[in-house]
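Q: A small favour: would you put together sequence and structure tokens for a protein?
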Amino acid sequence: MNNMGSSSSPYGQTVSNQLSATATAAAPLKGIIFDMDGTLIQLNVVNELIQRIYQVADEDPLGKCLERDDLDVMIAKLSPEGQRKAKKTIVEILQRHVDNMTIQEGGPELVAFLARNGVKRAVLTRNYERNAIVMQQMYAQVMTEATFDLIIGKDTPYDTSFPPEQEIPKADRIRQICNIWGCDTNEVIMMGDSITDDIVEGNRAGCGGTVLLQPIGYQLNHFYGTRIGDSRERTPTMCVESLTDVRHFFAAQMNNDVCYQQGEM
């Protein structure tokens, strides 16, 4: 886990009604947990990873009949040679991904806005922690504010009860982040571009809201054959087309809170 520093006291606004739909009651917004690939950076390798690993499975004697679902679960059921090929493929794709990494438009402005208002920021990614740190450094080059309080990648240690290379469900990671921040899961928002990963895991963890980023108006990670809203877990509390939209949304919410508080004085 990479702890990038801490923010000032959280801004006193509550999670909006729209973003607290999964919570039992409105709770103070303590932080936002960001997916990385396709969210904080433009290049989304998820679809390529899925296609390539499916090809490895098709060529593996144990993989042909496996259900095409969670990649980590499927890879663990391949033959030793199939697992080796799959892991090598993942490393190659992710390295090329780092070499071509591009910041998502509106990302630095959103992260800086949250930092100025005391909202904690974490990165939770199935990419490697070292690659997420490269992303953080790119953000730091164009920001004067602190970037992220926490960075957690697929290889970030969780606890000793898990095997060294086991992928930890994002829902458990979300709870881990909240434990570090000293808050409940209904006080944070999970934001990402994948229904099957970011939205499902955020809802399973009981986040105060889940935000689906759809850069050109539709959800990019579609290889699992799922649709937005085809189950409660795959229903985001809000969909946006850009991170700029998210910043404008929170700015409006904060402005409304300030106006309300001034009116009460």
Summary: The radius of gyration is 19 Å. The chain has a mean pLDDT of 80. DSSP finds eight helices and seven strands in the chain.
